[in-house]
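Project standup — Tuesday

K.O.: blocked on the structure for the chain from last sprint. Re-posting the sequence here as requested.
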Amino acid sequence: MINEKEIYNFFNKQKPVIGMLHLKPLPGSPVYNNEGLKPIIKHVLDEAGKLVKGGIDALEIENYNDPSYFPDCAPAETTAAMAIIANEVKKAYPEVTLGVCVLADPISSIAVAHSSGAKFIRATFFTEASVDVSGLALRRPHEILRYRKFLDPTIKIFADVHIKHSAPLATRPIEESAYDAAYFLADAVILSGKHTGHETPIEDVKKVRKVLPEFPIFIGSGTNKNNVAELLKYASGAIVGTSFKKNGKTEDDIEEYKVKNFMKIVERIRNG
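H.V.: unblocked you, prediction finished:
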C-alpha cells in the first residue's frame, strides 16, 4: 500500500485540492450539439484557467455531462475525445498535475492519462460490483492493475468507494470496502455523498480513517468553505467541483473568486 507521505510528495502539497473540470457533452452523448471539439476545448481551458489562477493544486477532467455514461466500457468516440481534450489541458498548463476520469471506465482512463501525460485517474468503480444509475457495473481490479502495469505503472489510481449515484451489489460497511480497495493496490480511496455536490458524511470519513490510519483518503463530493476544515481533519485531500460553480450548481461555470476564497481557507489549515 502507498502511504500519505507518498501522495503528498506526488502533489508536492499537504492536503492537496483537486479542481474538477466537468466537460461539456462529448461526441456520442445524447445531448452532444454536433459542433465538434473546439468549443468544448475552449470552455475547459477557460475553466482550468480559473482553477489555476485560484491556486488549485491539481486538475481532473471528467465527462460528467454525458448522460447516460457507459457503466463498464466507454465507447471509442468518448475515449478519443477525452484524450484530445486532456492533451490540450496539459499543453496549456504543463506545470499542473492532471487527472482523468472517463465515466465509468478506468482502463480507458489509464489510456487517456498515458497519452496526455496525466498522473492519476479516478476509478469510479474499482473493486466491487455495483448497481449504478447506468446499469450494472462489474469492474475487475486485476484487469485494471495489469493494464496499468502494461501501459504506464506510474499512473496513480484513486478509487471511489460506494461511489455516488450507485450502491454496491452486496451491502457492506464502507470501511470494509475501503480497506479492500487499498488491499487491491489503489493508491488512494475516495469517499463521497449520495449524489454529485452532496456532502460526504464525516462519520464515513472517520470510519475509513480508523481502518486505514496512514492511507490517502480523498473527499469526492460536497466539500465547501464551511466543512473543509472538519473534513480535512481526517481526509488527506479533496476533489472539489460544485462549490466553485455559479449558484452552487454543478452544470454552471466556475467562479474564480470562489476558488481563491476556498484555497485561502485550505492554506490556513495547512499552516495549522
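K.O.: great, moving the ticket to review. The first strand starts at residue 17 and ends at 22. The radius of gyration is 17 Å.
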